[in-house]
């Protein structure tokens, strides 16, 4: 992702201890980023696929996060 990407929508993923990551909708698709990440992990074709990718990036056994649009 370059510095000129415009975020059109954003969903924040919350686990039991607070925010764990976010999904940003851009012209390129849905991009996933965990709280501690410097860069996006990838671009996905749909919100549901991005949610699954974010969940898969969490620690083994992590609960499915609550996704809230911001």
Question: What would you say about this model in short?
Answer:
With 70 residues, the chain is α+β, with helices and mostly antiparallel strands. The chain has 1 helix and 5 strands, in the order ββββαβ.
Would you write up a description of this structure?
GO terms for molecular function: methyltransferase activity. The chain has 70 residues and is α+β, with helices and mostly antiparallel strands. The chain has one domain. Helices cover 16% and strands 41% of the residues. It is built from one helix and five strands, in the order ββββαβ. A five-stranded antiparallel beta sheet has the order 4-3-2-1-5, with helices on one face. The protein is globular and about 35 Å long. The relative contact order is 0.27. The model has no long low-confidence stretch (mean pLDDT 92).
> Rg, please?
11 Å
Instruction: Indicate the multimeric state.
Output: single chain
So what's the overall shape? globular
Number of helices: 1
- Average predicted confidence as pLDDT: 92
Q: Tell me about the biggest sheet?
A: 5 strands, antiparallel
Instruction: Give the CA-CA distance, first to last residue.
Output: 21 Å
């Amino acid at each position: 992702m370059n510095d000129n990407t415009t975020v059109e929508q954003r969903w924040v993923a919350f686990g039991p201890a607070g925010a764990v990551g976010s999904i940003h909708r851009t012209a390129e698709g849905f991009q996933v980023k965990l709280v501690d990440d410097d860069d996006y992990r990838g671009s996905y074709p749909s919100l549901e696929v991005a949610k699954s990718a974010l969940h898969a990036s969490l620690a083994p056994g992590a609960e499915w996060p609550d996704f809230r649009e911001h």
